[in-house]
Amino acid sequence: SCFGYPLSIFFIIINEFCERFSYYGMRAVLVLYFKYFLQWDDNLSTAIYHTFVALCYLTPILGALVADSWLGKFKTIVSLSIVYTIGQAIMSVSSINDLTDHNRDGSPDNVSVHIALSMIGLILIALGTGGIKPCVSAFGGDQFEDDQEKQRTRFFSIFYLSINAGSLLSTIITPILRAQECGIHTKQRCYPLAFGVPAALMALSLVVFITGSSMYKKVQPQGNIMIQVSKCIGFAIKNRFQHRSKEFPKREHWLDWASEKYDKRLIAQTKMVLKVLFLYIPLPMFWALFDQQGSRWTLQATTMDGNFVAIQIQPDQMQTVNPILIVIMVPVVDAVVYPLIKKCKINFTPLRKITVGMFLASLAFVAAALVQVQIDKTLPVFPAAGQSQIKIINLGTDRATVSFESQLQSVNVTPMESTGYMTFETSQLHSLKITSGNRTLTKPFDWPGGNRHTLAVKNTVTDIVAELLFDNVTSKPEEGNNLIRFISNLSDTINVTMGDTSFGTLNNLLSASSYHVFPGGRKDEIMVIRNSTSCSVTSDAFGFGSAYTIVINECSGNTLNVTYSEDIPPNTVHMAWQIPQYFILTCAEVVFSVTGLEFSYSQAPSNMKAVLQAGWLLTVAVGNIIVLIVAGASKLSEQWAEYVLFAALLLAVCVIFAVMAYFYTYIDPNEIEAQLDEEEKKQVKKDSDVYEKQAEADSQM
Where is the signal peptide, in residue numbers (predicted)? Predict the structure, then answer.
């Protein structure tokens, strides 16, 4: 032992820290991996994410059955940890871009291979993490003797702390690893590293756990109480169905129909458990909202500004707000909020706390909807299939006027300025008439609809020069990246580079490069080579999610003169605006989750805790399935409307739960079990008296 604790528990705590780091680290970047690497849309990414989470909370029942009925906790943890580690390793391999990028163009040539590997990896991870979930904490509890109740209680506190520490650190670190660029042939977001580190931590977790093998107290499997409860319920239903005619008298409770086969104690305990499980029915709706932190809320963060002064926050790092607030809020609520409510003489029962938690979660999604409305206001409008958008840049020293057919509008553009994008019906747009100074030029327009174009105009000494450029941008840059291109305002040939990216050669006046992707929030050096002379300047900071056209006006000596034209505005809604919704949801979690487990344990017999734990985990799984059903069935085009829908559904469920809670009668399982003990003693005494009388009668004969 060490400090009065079994030495073996230190291996278990380290094992749990590494495993939770592995799980939450992988899960933190998962939805962005689906969206940006596998190129799935938001809805499919969300659907697969929640399917995976649901599977992670369904498999604990399987793990508990295997451990209690067959392998025992130690062998179950080791076996499924191996499966878990293999799954994490496969996920890391699946995200290697160069695995199928044979033409080295920066994108996988066979995405199906990556999808297949990802799905295999996720299934193995779900089986591993879910299977060991009910075993590790119980295995830790087995290490203590009966007289070490105080140490056992403290162990569970440290165990829970290791879970949160692993979760917090991994949610900070893995998004940073993902944001790096790596690759053999082409540089991409480093998903192999973001998945590889959790895989390494899971392997370490397994090694640490096996290292302590000789020190563990290994309790042999003694059968699973869930199987007994299921058999009792099944027999009661079957027996009641077989005796459904009126000639058989009714019984006080439908479970009493199991009395022919099962003892009175098991039936009474099952009644208590079912009473609590009935209250669980509305709870999955809470988890349907809560687990969207890792999907919809993370995707929402990708459209926001993550620049916190000198620190750039990744969208998936916003999930760390929850564990940070949990560490702060749990002691504050226990030490300050609840005592204040008690002083106000408000009977804040556990079921009322759960109801308040549901209401707060609903409120958090209203806050998310309000943030989404503000984000939507900043999003650019792109042309529909039958429309075209045109933007004008005047690169000359004279004012330019552009007329779009006689029946359409005319636009005046001052020197070295640009307009925003103007939308036209493509069928009405046949030519553009450009007037500058005393000259006029007509440009035909024969482009298909659904595209954006930039008209670059310059009135030179001899004539008007105009180029209609095809922008080839149909959506706002994702992941906070920026799109940058260059237009030459020089008659000489120039070569342009920005940072490590070459934009190639611009051969003549108004020639333009294609757009290139740059990470958001940084400045890069722009270098231009003109007639063997190089000149450079440091670019402006472009923000996040923007697109810019940079005009090269002059390159002489060491001076480079450029102007910037904004094609797509950067993200302007700051990620800090997500903090209120995270705060409200964390408050909801504190009063819902902690209270829910506490209430469940207080209302169930001591040997039925595992059944309620399985039921609680099942509500999380069902909640994630609800996300799939609601998001798939709603067909809402606006994300804010989906947030409001989920908020409304939870509010309705909250009202139903409040009614159920109002009619619930609290019980004391210990008192009921004491009564059962007393009845059993009386029955034993009665049976003993009958036996003695029978024996006495037999002796007299």
Answer: none
Closest CA to 193 of 88, 323, 36, 299: 88
Beta strands in 229-316, from DSSP E residues, in sequence order? 307-308, 311-312
Specify whether the CB–CB gap between 483 and 473 falls below 8 A.
Answer: yes
Residue 86, pLDDT score: 96
Residue 346 has which token pair? 């408000």
pLDDT digits (tens, 9 = 90+) for 282-302: 999 999 999 999 999 999 998
Cα(540)–Cα(206) distance, rounded to whole angstroms? 49
The encoded tokens of residue 631 equal: 């998001």
In the predicted model, residues of the chain with pLDDT beneath 70 are 1-4, 224, 406-407, 601, 606-607, 610, 680, 684, 687, 689, 695, 698-701
Cβ neighbours of residue 580 closer than 8 Å, sequence gap 6 or more: 367
- Cα distance between the two ends of the chain: 64
For the sheet with 422-425, list strands across it. Answer: 422-425, 387-394, 451-459, 464-470
Per-residue confidence (pLDDT) for residue 254, from 0 to 100: 83
Give CA separation, 615 vs 254, 562, 597, 600, 611, in Å. 21, 64, 11, 10, 6
Distance CA 154, CA 221 (A): 25
User: Which one, of 434, 484, 429, 494, lies nearest residue 458 by Cα?
Assistant: 434
CA distances 543 to 345, 421, 486, 577, 694, Å, are 52, 20, 18, 17, 94
pTM: 0.83
Q: What are the respective helix, strand and coil percentages of the chain, to the nearest 5?
A: 55, 15, 25
